[in-house]
Amino acid sequence: MEASRTPLLDYFRRGEAPVDIRLLAARGVLAPRAYEQLELLRLLVKDADSDVAAAAEATLQSIPVEALSAFLARSDVSSELRAFFAERGVAIAPAPAGDDDSPLVDAAPEPELAPAGEDAQSTLQRITSMTVAQRIGVAMKGSREERAILIRDPNKIVAVAVLSSPKMTENEIEGVAKMASISEEVLRIIANNRAWTKRYSIIVALARNPKTPVAISMNLLGRLSERDLRAISTDKNVPEALRITARQKIVLNR
Predict the structure, then answer these.
(1) CB–CB of 198/208 below 8 Å?
(2) Global confidence as pTM
(3) What is d(CA 79, CA 86) in angstroms, rounded to the nearest whole number?
(4) Which of 83, 112, 120, 199 is a good FRET partner for 234, with 20 to 30 A between their CA atoms?
(5) CB contact at 8 A, 95 and 73
């Protein structure tokens, strides 16, 4: 996943985050990776809401200078982020930090551990009783089983947190892309992530998912093999326009 383009950062940059979620990020509660945290704080310190801006400033001030300087020395840090901290008097260290992507300030609540032998229904009930902040924490730090539940959460930021979790694997992304019960927005986020759509099986899963927005599915057809085009051309679960276009592509490819 590109450091500057993660589902979480895109969500905030589009201005979709409500004030309570922005406040969580400003306080260091919502940030699965150091890079995302610093980019969020850079954005939120200028937030229109004074409480959010003040919280972001306080979190920035709490970051140990040595750790921050070493992180800024990493080759994957953007020039914009370095310039932001240079204006704040933070110099770049001679030697970069290691590849640890843990947030520099972690105020997120530790996820509640699942009891030994907990069944799926009990896991669902436990998660349902959590606050949004707790569900975000589990989305970023919890188990694969918990992520499979939270990806369907009606609160969009929880699903975004799942997709941004450092623990999320490409196999899980492929599984999500196959879900007919998932929201269109989650499928759109996956389709717009260049790192994930390098994997052919994810492209196929998105194209065959009836919940994927048709415009996205149409664009993906050009990347499919004839075998998969034929499968889509007879798949009554996908929109008719997609079946027709798949048949046309088969003819053109001959």
Answers:
(1) no
(2) 0.82
(3) 10
(4) 199
(5) yes
DSSP 112: P
In this structure, the dihedral spanned by the alpha carbons of residues 119, 122, 128 and 133, taken in order and rounded to 10 degrees, is -70
Residue 117: both structure tokens together: 């032998």
How many residues belong to the chain? Answer: 254
- 10 Å Cβ neighbour count for 44? 23
Choose among 10, 70, 73: nearest CA to 43: 10
For the segment 172-211, what is each residue's pLDDT rounded down to a tens digit?
Answer: 999 999 998 899 999 999 999 989 999 999 999 999 999 9
Measured N-to-C along each axis, helices 156-164 and 184-191 cross at an angle, to the nearest 10 degrees, of 30
Tell me what percent of the chain is helix, strand and coil, each rounded to the nearest 5: 60, 0, 40
pLDDT band at 1 (very low <50, low <70, confident <90, very high): very low
In angstroms, the CA 61 to CA 76 distance is 23
